[in-house]
């Protein structure tokens, strides 16, 4: 299975999640790549959109390889404790937590995060590699008391999908290829998403009638 781009993937996810169309669901996208996807998914499901802010803890030898992840509260998940020293992980947690604070200031300067309590919440990302950031995101949302918590991804490594399952009420993954190496290999167009596109997606939804009011 090959997706044309993130919007194509979102449309296919919307078909798989059609049961939640018009049910006042909340789509929470993991920035940055999943936000345009989350916007398209929220449009298709007549849902609200916001972000769940988590950051991967990068390996010392390769920052793009996640040895764990951290959420806004400072809770962290270490998926590969043998990959880095405790001292390195402590410093990486501090660095990534500061990045999360910067992103919250950038993405939500005048708006509180949408409260997921009591709602059907769909956490979306453009794929699961190690699964670490998704686990952190699901943990963060679960602590807020959603009615139902759904993980939705177009593609994922089979082992990572299994690791994520205990953290969600439902996992929707369209494709679990045995030859998974990187998320981008399953997209024809996998361009980087910039902060201004994230902000534009969020502002478009906040301008809709019934959206949470600014502080």
Automatic annotation (TrEMBL):
Residues 12-188 form the Phosphoribosyltransferase domain. Keywords: Glycosyltransferase, Transferase. InterPro entries: PRTase-like, PRTase_dom. The keyword ATP-binding does not apply. One of its GO terms (molecular function) is glycosyltransferase activity. Pfam families: Pribosyltran. Signal peptide: none annotated. The keyword Transferase applies. It comes from the Bacteria. This is Phosphoribosyltransferase.
